[in-house]
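Hey, quick one: can you model this chain's 3D structure?
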Amino acid sequence: MSSALPFIPPFPAAAPRTPLRYLALAGPTASGKTAAALAIAHAHDVEIISVDSALVYRGMNIGTAKPTPVELATVPHHLINIRDPLQAYSAAEFVTDARALITDITARGKLALLVGGTLLYFKALFQGIDPMPQANPAIRAVIEEEARQQGWPALHAALAVVDPITAVRLSPADSQRIQRALEVFRISGLPLSSFHTPKTAAPGAESPSDDVSLISLEPLDRAWLHQRIAQRFDAMLAADFLDEVHTLRARGDLHPDLPAMRCVGYRQAWEALDGLWPMHELRDKGIFATRQLAKRQITWLRAMPQRHIVACDDPGALPQVLTLARSFVESKK
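Sure thing. Here's the predicted structure for all 333 residues.
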């Protein structure tokens, strides 16, 4: 089979953004974002847009600490339960979906409240991101044939040459993501990792900035957050988190290299059920992985100087959040 690639037209540049107005609430896992968001919703006419790469997946409720049915019914929520765990969801897709939702919510006379801990999504929304190339069946067929002849580890090695940043975070057996990364490179001539880096417009060509206030819940005492993380993981286990993972595994079409199954908690549970280590170690491994996630989230937040910091371990945290929210609601750009 010939490996000649079909002609691909030049990839279009991102269109200028229309400025939007919205309120954002971010913070590490277990920092109290859900309670704070519901308090804001009780005080103001808002709709919540989830900024969470795990909450998009259906059937993953316990391990993601997804808002309860009662909480979801209290105020309209968006970008929750929009993907099957077999499907990926990118930062570029989030930006497209979120901006469309913000526009719609604003047009209905309400305020969009973006809440979550996936800071890559927030950064892409704030700074912009190039649109991801669409799937190309012809190129995918060529890559699949190469994989049949050479094996996915060989294609992983080829990916490492053109996109080492993406290759280092992928398993040589992760066929789905290796294929997508090679496809993006062959369509655009750019590594997949470059599309995960917010873009800066050329001087004089900047899009008007959004009118946004970012409230950031950050602990003064890391031990306070660690205790909350442990309590949450214990509550997940008590709520039959393992049964949820068993149900996902029983489908037969999911595997641990999928983005959904690499979510913190699910990955550790899957590995325990695969016998990679004793089940009695699940709690400690899950808590440790969640702590590492929280550490990364805080690092991302510290790179956002525009944020308004609220110490989430302060007894007066919620009133401070409400004061900041009210100030933004009452202000006009």
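One thing worth noting: Residues 79 and 97 are 8 Å apart (CA to CA).
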